[in-house]
Design goal:
It contains 12 helices and 9 strands. By secondary structure, the protein is α+β, with helices and mostly antiparallel strands. A hairpin with a 2-residue loop joins strand 6 and strand 7.
């Protein structure tokens, strides 16, 4: 039996040495050390040995088993190291190559315009104020000198939720709230940008549009005048649309200002010469403005004999179209990624 055990050892070590892969090596392990393996079969026959032979053969079997297991483990480790090395070579990363460009989003053109306007007016000492989009009739109309039954309400057909609540038709409602909340009657310089809503029958108009409005209120002794309004709007327009733009004021009517003006800018496309964009006039209407009406001051807690100021408002969508030469307002709301991705490049230009 001793010779048989030594023969099993030599045979196993030779087979282990000649194996070329892990699967074959595992087969060798089972062949010699498994439950039905050759070395296990020898151990089963030890019952026929004498008491003197059993410890000798048992010790030899354990020694042979240890040598076979060590040889198997060493060979297995070599195979694993070779496999890892091959994998590392195949998956080598050249760290000198540039990284893959990550596709990122782009700010919406209307949001870009809002941020630019807010930055400009904050630099001029204005506060940025927000207000509710679901507004009361009181703040949307009545405190702006538009009592119930006033014919000027017809210009702002609205989405009423109840008899008193509606989606705001203009951000002017925030001006009224700001004046009323200013109990100390300190000077006000504020702008408000946001969404407004009007029911429209004209297919070229949208029921929802962005608007930004500004308000300045101060004591009359400080003499806030039309000249201040004109200077403010010149800075605003030249910053947003172009430094070569000229302003033109035309008398108009708004219930909350008196006197009131429509403000035109010289056409940025043709330079005022006349083209299809400005309908051959050389001018494009962009703003409404005026001196705050005494009734508006009085209804919002200000003595019109002591205080005065100016207000202005314009459409954000229209400014975005002028700034970026967008031909159709519907592009602003289509959420087409091909359209929206352009504006990082346009701002860099």
């Amino acid at each position: 039996m001793k010779e048989e055990i030594i023969k099993i050892k030599e045979s196993a070590l030779e087979e282990i040495s000649n194996t070329q892969d892990l699967k074959t090596l595992n087969d060798v392990r089972v062949k010699y050390l498994g439950k039905k393996g050759e070395l296990t079969s020898v151990l089963r026959g030890m019952g026929a040995l004498s008491a003197e032979e059993r410890p000798v053969i048992g010790s030899l079997v354990n020694e042979v088993r240890a040598k076979i297991e060590n040889a198997l483990n060493e060979k297995e480790e070599k195979f694993k190291q070779a496999e890892l090395q091959e994998k590392l070579e195949k998956e080598t990363i050249d760290i000198t190559l540039p990284g893959a460009k990550i596709k990122r989003g782009s700010k919406h053109p209307v949001n870009r315009v809002i941020e630019e306007i807010e930055d400009l007016f904050v630099s001029m000492g204005y506060d940025v104020v927000a207000g509710p989009e679901l507004e009361t009739d009181e703040f949307c109309f009545e405190r702006l000198n538009l009592p119930k039954g006033h014919p000027a309400r017809d210009m702002q057909d609205s989405f009423y939720i109840t008899n008193e609540y509606l989606l705001r038709t203009q951000t002017s409602a925030v001006q009224a709230r700001t004046m009323l909340a200013n109990e100390e009657k300190s000077p006000i310089r504020m702008i408000c940008a946001g969404k407004t809503y009007r029911r429209e029958d004209d297919a070229t108009h949208s029921h929802q549009f962005g608007q930004v409005e500004g308000l300045v209120i101060d004591k009359k002794e400080r003499n806030v005048s039309l000249a201040d309004l004109k200077g403010t709007l010149e800075i605003f327009v030249k910053k947003l649309i172009g430094k070569n733009c000229e302003l033109r004021f035309r008398p108009s009517y708004f219930p909350f200002t008196e006197p009131s003006y429509e403000v035109d800018v010289s056409c940025f496309k043709c330079g005022g010469k006349g083209c299809s964009l400005c309908k051959q006039t050389g001018w494009i209407e962009v703003l409404g403005a005026g001196i705050v009406h005494p009734n508006v001051l009085k209804m919002n807690g200000y003595d019109p004999e002591k205080y005065g100021g100016f207000a202005f408002g314009t459409g954000l969508d229209r400014l975005a179209m002028f700034k970026y030469a967008i031909p159709d307002m519907r592009y602003l709301y289509a959420n087409d990624i091909r359209f929206l991705n352009q504006f990082d490049r346009k701002d860099e230009e």
